[in-house]
Amino acid sequence: MPQTSLRLATLSLALGAFAIGTSEFAAMGLLPWYAADLGVSEPEAGHVVSAYALGVVVGAPLTSILGARLPRRRYLAGLIGAYGVMNLLAALLPGYGTLVGMRFLAGLPHGGFLGVAMLFAADALPYDQRAKGVTQIMLGLTVANIFGVPLAGVLGQSLGWRWGFALPGALALLAAVLILRFAPRVGVDPHARPLQELRALGNPAVILTLLVGAVGFGGIFAVYAYLSAAMLATAAPPSWAIAVTLAAFGLGGTLGSIGAARLTIRLGVFRAGFWLMLFMAATQGFAALAVGNWMAMALSSFVLGLGSGLVVPLQTRLMDVAGKAQSMAAAMNHAAFNAANALGPWVAGMALTAGWGWRSSGLVGIGLSLAGLLALTVAWRHARGR
Asked: How far is the C-alpha of 172 from the C-alpha of 155, rounded, in Å?
């Protein structure tokens, strides 16, 4: 495949990842605005975030099975095209219930697209450069948190929250067109057996690794989902502070991923995971203490992002234990983190509803990180036993 065509195909896939990252995290940053406009409380509006996450959890295995015998080019374009349509419908249709439903449907293509896009980009490169292809797709998610999410936040605050969903919807449709134009035409694998992908879900090592992400990562989302609302309610920030805070999370995530990769190489999967989980708990404690001071809360967003590097050792572990079910494992890894995206805001929302105050989201985060640490210990003991 010519080098220029390869770059354009990879950029098309990365644009799809950028649209997904923008939509997923903008929904958290814009929570106070659509809660007020739709006449619901912040904890109830958190169900919009949870509905998307549940859509990812449901959609990851389904799309992996249904897409096993489809040409990857059309499969990827179809998934990101459907994603764009659902985001635009979320922006256009009225009512709280409709928004929750559209966000659930938008979550269905998330895991399948990102998982297969990473494998697609990796397979387009020589074997010793496969990690570079995966990184290029991940860059779309990282850059989305630095630029896309703050831009969606600015549009949402100035023109109305619906623009925060319309922007990634339009970008997703553009990505679908570009994928059809530039991605190589690869035939269908005649030996593909879709149901064999489900074997990954019967592998205890895979399940334990996914459990660590599903529980442990919930702490980050418990804090991040309500960070904008807590800042507005307690700190009287300037108008630009929310966008800066969202960008700080993305910058922290970028640096955290780089640092986590080096830590994993140096210490191994499990030792790196233990240290990163403890660091995550500490950042959530700092977030609880920072409530009421908008500058400290912006800094807490940055350090929260640093903790997101936990994805590196967990993804590495999945690659080691998934065997031939790499596609399912890649998709389910995104499902696990979105299960955390559902769990964290849900538990934090209950704490807020119970009247525990805005600091409670950080305390919930600490509890979920410690639970993730326990799950990691179980996974480590299982690996030793094998």
From this structure: 17
Per-residue pLDDT reduced to its tens digit, 293-320:
989 999 999 999 888 888 778 877 877 7
CA distance 168 to 145: 12
Q: Which CATH number fits domain 196-386: 1.20.1250.20, 3.10.129.10, 3.40.50.800, 3.30.240.20?
A: 1.20.1250.20
Per mean pLDDT, which range of 209-213, 288-292, 309-313, 372-376 is the poorest? 309-313
Quick one: how far is CA 256 from the chain centroid? 15
- Contact predicate 162/154, CB 8 Å: no
Residues of the chain with CATH 1.20.1250.20: 1-184, 196-386
Full-model pTM:
0.76
3-class DSSP assignment, residue 346: helix
- Residue appearing with tokens 């929310």: 242
* Residue 367: Cβ within 10 Å count: 17
Helices marked H in 225-268: 227-234, 241-267
> Rounded to the nearest 5 degrees, what angle is found at the Cα of 75, between the Cα atoms of 90 and 54?
45
Please name the residue that has the structure tokens 């140096």.
266
Q: Give CA–CA dist 72/192, Å, rounded.
A: 12
Both structure tokens of 153: 């936040």
Per-residue pLDDT tens digits for 104-144: 999 999 988 887 787 777 666 665 555 556 667 777 877 88
> DSSP string spanning 200-220?
GGG-HHHHHHHHHHHHHTHHH
Q: Does domain 1-184 have CATH number 1.20.1250.20?
A: yes
Q: Do 150 and 246 meet the contact criterion of CB atoms below 8 Å apart?
A: yes
Per DSSP, the three-state class of 70 is coil
Give, in order, the Cα–Cα distances in Å from 155 to each of 17, 221, 384. Answer: 20, 23, 51
Whether 110 contacts 182, CB under 8 Å: no
Q: Residue 150: what residue type? A: P
